[in-house]
Task: structure prediction
Amino acid sequence: MSVKPIGIFDSGVGGTSIWREINQLLPHENTIYLADSKHAPYGPKGKQQIEELCIKNTELLLEKGCKLIVVACNTATTNAINYLRNNYDVPFIGIEPAIKPAALQTKTNAVGILATKGTLSSSLFHKTSNLHASGVEVIEQVGEGIVQLVENGETYSEEMRALLQLYLKPMLDANIDHLVLGCTHYPYLIPILLELLPNNVKIIDSGEAVARQTKTILKQQKLLNNKQSNPKFQFFTNRNTEVLKQLLGEGFEASYLDF
Ligand code: DGL
Result:
């Protein structure tokens, strides 16, 4: 058992969707969340720059004594997790688009994936897609501009609706029956997506799987904290504390930290 915190980082506020899944499955764990909103979006950046930002976030979480780090960002995972695993001793849990379950379950043989440019162009994503979805038509779409809107607190606006309509069109034309959310900011769009998608299209994201994997690794390494009755949840952002608080909902505090 270890009372040390789980560290979680994302390019911004989106990874709180993963924090929520982790907190639900592991309610006794102390957590520290870093929203690197000052440097969002990571999606259009090159691999090396993404790696550098991930190193900065990792070192801050390690300074704060984290026992395990969740890279709650598809773009950061697909571009930097190998580097992080090779260079730091703590376990890292990453998140990748859930293309495998979508490919296994599709009946129309067409699935859509909405993700950042950084994720869709990464070699890790190509590897996963070729391995698990080779016989399926995969309609890839870069969600240009979506992360910025979420970072500004706009999860349900006309601008967001118009962007999503544009991005979903080629997927719906191809008769997809699964939409994979390949970015941790996107679960916040589910209310609009449900209005825009026909009933037969299932939305898939990887948040729950990440929480389950976090639990498995903590157990394996004898680091699980399943007893603490008043865990501490810390949320830090290097930009706007209000948006972070808005997404977390009532009862949570967020602090500004320059990193
Ligand atoms: N939440 C990040 C992801 O899952 C957003 C990436 C970005 O900042 O562009 O990919």
In short: The longest helix spans residues 47-63. Residues 6-95+207-256 form a domain with the Rossmann fold fold (CATH 3.40.50.1860). DSSP finds eleven helices and ten strands in the chain.
